[in-house]
Amino acid sequence: MRKGIMARAAAGRGRTLRFRPKHSAVLRRPSRARLTVMIGAPHLAEVAALVGDPARANMLCALIDGRALTAKELAGVAGVTPQTASGHLARLAGGRLLDVVKQGRHRYYRITSPQVGRMLESIMTVAAGGPPRYRPPSKIDDAMRRARTCYDHLAGRLGVGIADAMCGRQHVILADEIGEVTDAGSEFLAGFGVDLADAQRRRRLFCRACIDWSERRPHLAGAVGAAIAQRCFDLGWIERIRRDRSLIVTRDGQRGLAEVFDLTL
User: Fold this and answer.
1) Cα dist. 108→67, 70, 104, 148 in Å?
2) Where, residue-wise, is CATH 1.10.10.10 in the chain?
3) Architecture of domain 45-112
4) Is the dihedral of CA 59, 62, 67, 71 positive or negative?
5) Whole-prediction pTM value?
6) How far apart are CA 48 and CA 9, in angstroms?
7) From its phi and psi, is residue 161 left (phi > 0), alpha (psi between -120 and 50) or beta?
8) What is the pLDDT of residues 75-96, one digit of tens each?
9) pLDDT value at residue 173
């Protein structure tokens, strides 16, 4: 028996011992299909890098209400020099997040489309639900939460309050990110002075829900939301504040909102 053991040992010399796992399927090489990079991933990373810079993020937030501002104004918002701001704005325009409008000797920058505005508002909603961070109380924050613009429609307690009033009266039906204006809602908006026929002609979503980052509930967006906001401006119910997106609700606005939407801010 000893000779047999020695013989088998001699025969095994020079061989490499390999570990064979019991469940070999666990260590299988992934198929090539699983490792294929999504086509849109590089573009996603590019846009995320553009938005992720603090200076550029401040610029985009200043433009999210649809206004057009100069490079000097945006440099002040971002807290950078005009030369640095010029570089940031060139990157944002190159990434098609901003458009450049020339008017005489001035160049104005504005957000390219409502889709960019929705993206920024969605990012702010996600950020608001992240880990709590200490921020000292700010009058600007309070004003933004009370009433502000979200690209071209109303947000904050003002926007959510109008949406709640219209949903409660069955003037609109909101679900997820879609919305529908009822027949009663069409009649109500016509009486309020909103031209729904003009809103329907616009090349954008007619009515949709947009989750408000400060209230965590939906406000009205789309062509209908923009038309309501414009009507409130035309009536003198709300006024813009130059430094940011927050709005002032005038005395006429307080009376009108209470009368038309049963809303008190």
Assistant:
1) 9, 5, 10, 22
2) 45-112
3) Orthogonal Bundle (1.10)
4) negative
5) 0.63
6) 62
7) alpha
8) 998 999 999 999 999 999 999 9
9) 94
